[in-house]
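Input (Integrase catalytic domain-containing protein):
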Amino acid sequence: MPFKPEIEKNSLGDSYQMASKMLDNLWKRLNRDPTMKFLYSEFLREYKNLNHMEEITNCNHSNDGYFLPHHGVLRPSSITTKLRVVFDARAKTTTGYSLNDLLCAGGVLQDDLFSILTRFRKHQYAFTADISKMFRQIEINPSQRKYLKILWKEGPEENVKRFALKTVTYGTTSAPFLATRTLQQLAKDERENFPIASKVLLEDFYMDDCLSGASDINQFMALKKELGELLLRGGMTLHKWCSSESSESDLYPFNYCEKQSTIARLFDPLGFLGPVISKAKIFLQRLWLLQIDWSQKLPSDIAQEWSSFIASLSYVKNIKIPRFVLRPNPKEIILHGFSDASEKAYGAVIYLQSVCDSSDNNTFLLCSKSRVAPIKSVTIPRLELAAGLLLAQLTRKVLNALKLKINQVLLWSDSTVALSWIDTPPHLLKTFVSNRVAQIQELTKEYHWSHITSKNNPADLLSRGIDAQFLVNNQFWFQEPDSFNSLNSETELNQSDKNYLSEFKSKDSVCLTLKTSALFDDVICISNNFQKLIRIISLIFRFINKCKKNSKECGAPSKIKRQNAEIYILREVQVRTFGNEIHSLEQCGNVTPNSKLKSLSPFLDSQGILRVGGRLRNSILPYNSKHPILLPAKHKVTDMIIQYYHKIQFHSGPQALLYNIRQKFWPLNGRNLCRKIVHSCVTCFKANPKISSQKMGDLPEDRVNPNFVFNSVGIDFSGPFYIKTKLRKRDPPTKIYVCIIICLSTKAIHLELVSDLSSEALIAALKRFMARRGKRRKILSDNATNFVGTKNEINRLFKLMEQQDALFQNFLSEEEITWIHSPQGTSSRWSLIEGLLNSRPLSPLSSEVKDLEILTPGHFLIGRPITSIPEPLMVELNDNRLNRWQLLTKKVQTIWKHWSKNYLNNLQQRHKWMFKKDNINIGDMVLIKEDNVPVSKWSLGRIVKLYPGKDNIIRVVDIKTKTGIFKRSVSRLCVLPIER
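Output:
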């Protein structure tokens, strides 16, 4: 069974309770009807005896698979099966799905009933048969039988048993497809053994019903035997045989019950009762226009007309139409088609004429089709054209169905205007008529259209409609055997009729004068593709030729046309750029001494193209390689040619590109041109992108101005680290982190232990830090992408550092602290923390050779290096306490003075990014550099916002990608070489 791929099979849920409840309801009905109870039990007993279902004893899960509810349908008129059990695969389960919701319906594999019935009429000896229990002869894969489970019990007090159906089950969506697909596979597998029967199995079966035959009795008997043997190979048998034993039984009868009240109950797929059904359609359209509700009583005049029509339907049973429409061994078979239209309806009818000699021929009605006219007012000629289109479509369908050798196909219409339109090129007509004429000409290009008078047109009955009693024995509709012998197709069409001329497009003559040079310049601006430019020029030349003469050339330009267009393009380019050289060559055969082409010894070939003369005249190279075509260095066509070769050579480098171009062309300054094209190629740039950079910015004020230690700090995290909190061996280690806080101006470091990456832990660390160092004014941090730990740790740290919750935001607000984030990926912007940890000493305290002490962050914290051992004072000084305080103050001031004079001066130099470059602009397309991701996978984005610094240099931008808008540094971007 074909399940839909987008729906999971486990979406069915529990169906047991639903099936059990419906089984109880079924038994209540069976107890009220003993006859139905007996037939129902016999049906399922036969199902089990034929091994079409099996009992399940090990099914414990009610939601594993699907339980099919079932009920009975009584058919007293059936000869073989009085009651059929119908399995309902549309019943919903607890999830709201049914089995049919999960199954694919499959396609239609067999011909439609119209084609089969039409083909059935060509056989002199015909038969019908039916495959016995076709669905139940096809087994289902055992792994899918759990979706075809049923519940049944032999009596109301018996235990409920579970059964699995083993065969294709009617009631499931896929059952018709599986059955017909199996028949077709059987026919293909046994084609060599049963060639005739396999063809019948493929073409003449409508579901399990066969309608087929043969041209003589021997073929008929052979086919009957072979078809039975073929189906036996698939475990199937034919029954309900019926054949054309006599002329009385070989007729199509029509039955109609007088109690039926609607024309829709007439089943007439071939349209034998077309005029009667056409009248009913016209009547129903009248009711719709009167806006009469279905439950509303009809007006008396309309009710009387309808009653009269219904009463006439009893005459339908007197209509009998021969099934066989051919004469034995005809010399010629002619198919006649007629179309007609009126203000109310239009239609088409087809007849088949078989001719044995000039005086012996038969003509039979084959089929018909009718439609009511649109409610919107349409002219009669347009309706006649619509009838012609309907006839063309019906003729094509009949010819495909019959599969006979038809000697002539004659199509008739009584409208000279419609016939004139059909004989007119569609492009000359207005849209409505043009579309239908084009379809008619396509469908009937091999057939002949002719004119017929209205009194001889049988399709006239379709366009007006008649009652059933007038259709019985109506020879005008069913046709006399020699009625087509008098038809004359030599009627002159009236192409001066105002209705015919009204559908022609108006013709306005326009005189256009163009300057050739301007036209060429405009054309080459249309596209940047050299091959497309050649195609455009070729089509322009074709248009010019069609204007000069009646040319019917169409389709893609030929190879010769494209070569001529290429020569024209190259000649126009050379005339505009090498005009003086060409003039000199035409006058004296050489270029002037001051020409830039003199080293190439150029010459004009037979087509007027300027080529390189060179020194390779005696080589065995091809002509184009010895004498390549000269191209100017600065021209759009030259760029287009180089771009074309660059693409067809799979984006080769400049050297290989130049080599391939010089096999045919010689562009001046070719090496530089090839480099320019390669460097401006977006595809090549994506494969080898260049990272953008900008002049290094000035240091922030927090790093270059004296201030309290830890007034402005940077914060980062390190970890995780694992520690033992308990002495027992089996206790798991605890994960901790280290919060690193560093002073931006003095490089002093403060370390805090953090238990986890939460807002509470970070707040506690900051409180401990401020209790030791005092309140801070500003805190800087990056976006935590410098961690190389696991992905989960990075995500947690990112959320902590960038998306602080309300608790953390309130803490910052209360402490009057400004928290600043750097854009993601801009480690160079706030690289102070990592950089300072790697270079702790700041500068020497003095320039004396013997003085080895250097300026360190400890001098700002305690006045000396943290690692030094305090030395006791060896000499007692007479200074009082005030003088000692002044001495300490002087020492601190000396330290800050040395910091300002020496250390800050060391920060003056830029060690990279020393030159200013062009700023990125809004709208630029860029590739975003991503770590640990291949270049081909880098995201593409567009600049939507700029963040200029104090020096008006752009170093941070907002980028819009397919996943959102992000802020990034220009050092993470690669600007695509696209000219905006």
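DSSP finds 32 helices and 32 strands in the chain.
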